[in-house]
What we know:
The chain is 54% helix and 17% strand. It is of the alpha+beta class. It has 2 domains: 3-55, Winged helix-like DNA-binding domain superfamily/Winged helix DNA-binding domain (Arc Repressor Mutant, subunit A), CATH 1.10.10.10; 60-198, 2-Layer Sandwich (Muramoyl-pentapeptide Carboxypeptidase, domain 2), CATH 3.30.1380. The strands form 2 sheets. Strands 3-4-6-5 form a 4-stranded antiparallel sheet. Strands 1-2 form a two-stranded antiparallel ribbon. The protein is elongated. 16% of the residues are buried.
Amino acid sequence: MSVEQLAQELAVSKVCVRRHLSLLESDGLISYVEERHERGRPRFIYKLTDKARCFFPQNYDEFARDLLLQIQRQFGDEGLENVIAARTNELIERIRKDLDGASFDESVKILTKTINSNGYLADARRLKDGSYRLRHRNCPTENVAARYPIVCEEEMRVYQETLGCEVVRECRIVDGARMCEFRIMPTALTQITSRKSSD
């Protein structure tokens, strides 16, 4: 909408609307495009950014749960597992392309960036032994994962297969923890650990 339309809709002055728009824009919640006409000054049309969508009702979780329930009813547990695994396989292939030629450390960074782009608020910290601690401070699939634990299992498979190493989950939000935590161990470290435990 334009400033004029917003002022009319909200029954406030254009000055008031512009002040609010300026604040919303500085917070990254709105953007605008310039609409030019043959005569007069250009008009600015404002719209919400993706960042602002969280302030409005969304039922993605409910839709996803209902859809998975229908798949389970129609095709049984095996059908449900096949559908979720197929999605995971596609995700693994996409991420592997991004990691092509990257070192282990670079791969962990790229994977973390990919996770963040999906809303996980993730960070990965390298530990003294060369392993990484990956943390998610948000779980965008929490409500779905609470009903279908296979979602969490497949998420871990993404990490294991894209990085080609052992990944151990230490805690998860669905179980009441403040965050999901994973320990990512490079192949060399995994071999050392298994040799020590067999001695």
